[in-house]
Amino acid sequence: MSNTTATAAATQRPAEPESPAFAFVRELAASLSGGPIELPSFPEVAMRVQQVLADDAVSTEMVVRLVGAEPMLAARVVRLANSAAMNPSSQPITDLRTAVARMGFDSLRAAAVSFAMAQLRSRDDYANIEGQLTQNWLDSVTFAATACVVARRSQRMSADTALFAALVACVGKVYILTRASRHPELFADPDGYQAIVKEWHINIACALLESWHVADEVIEAVQTHEHRNEEGRPGPPLGDVLACAALMSRLKDSPEKLGPLFSASRAAQRLGLGKAAPEPLLSDAANELATLNAALGR
After folding, report:
1. How many helices (H) and strands (E) does the chain have?
2. Which among 46, 22, 34 has a CA at the least distance from the CA of 171?
């Protein structure tokens, strides 16, 4: 075969089909570069809560009207306001207005996120990933409970803000999972799928949080926390709180491994917790988790 004929044959040969993983990554990249992104099936009222609460001057009356428009969200807010963490006096709160007045904006945002995730998990079109969505939510609540404990122990920032930041740090994983539900072949390679999640979830989470007008402090913490345990440079304490909470959550069942890593953590040292034994923190986190599960629901 002449060189000309060989070249023509090569030109006419069908291109190799791209792998499912590569095609999916290309889809993720296109969605990120195409402008604001939205979490599929995220309830409109939950998104509006995030956006309205971005204005620190918003009135209680407006928040009550917004939350009250969705009875299931309103019930979740009242339940959270009655939790041990929010209501240490144990005086029962029965009306939404009192609940909104009692809670900080970050706790209201957390209630809206928990409502949205519950709605997402109940959708028929995500039945094939319901178990994964549920596990993701349980991991998020564990992370949030631990972040609350770290924030309180360090006394460097609001536990409510730490709770909210930890809950929304995982929304990128939810976005990827809901998109991947249309490509079930991706789940045949768990390691490959997890590699995609690891590479993309933070950037996607930050893009979603920007569209919700979440505070820059929270977005920066979500963006940087995965590296804060190793980084020596100072930074806002919220990122360090999330970094310590992530380490503790990952190794909560292996305290013998957690101890040396926690004491060596730059984030823990900056928070003044480098010399703290992690076992009492883990115990407090387990108690906080029980409270949050009761308040936010599964």
Report:
1. 16, 0
2. 46
Q: What is the 3-state secondary structure (H, E, C) of 237-251?
A: HHHHHHHHHHHHHHC
Is the distance from CB of 281 to CB of 151 less than 8 angstroms?
Answer: no
Domain residue ranges in the chain: 40-296
What tens digit of pLDDT does each residue of 144-187 get?
999 999 999 999 888 889 999 999 999 999 999 999 998 989 99
In degrees, rounded to 5, the angle at the alpha carbon of residue 100 between the alpha carbons of residues 88 and 237 is: 70
Q: Which amino acid is at 41?
A: S
> Angle formed by the axes of helices 105-121 and 278-296, to 10°?
70
Structural tokens at position 130: 């319901």
pTM: 0.86
How many alpha carbons lie under 13 Å from residue 296 in its C-beta half-sphere?
A: 30
78-115: per-residue pLDDT in tens?
Answer: 988 888 777 667 788 888 999 888 888 888 999 899 89
Q: DSSP 3-state assignment of 34?
A: coil
Closest CA to 116 of 70, 155, 54, 162: 70
In the numeric block, which tokens belong to residue 45?
A: 């009222």
Q: Please tell me the distance from the alpha carbon of residue 103 to that of residue 255, in angstroms, as a whole number.
A: 34
* Residue 286 burial (CB count, 10 A): 14
User: Do residues 279 and 254 touch, judged by C-beta distance below 8 A?
Assistant: no
H/E element, 105: helix 105-121
Which among 54, 37, 43, 39 is positioned nearest to 76, based on CA atoms? 43
DSSP 191-215: HHHHHHHHHHHHHHHHHHHHHTT--
Domain 40-296 superfamily per CATH: Hypothetical protein af1432 (1.10.3210.10)
Q: What is the CA radius of gyration of the chain?
A: 22
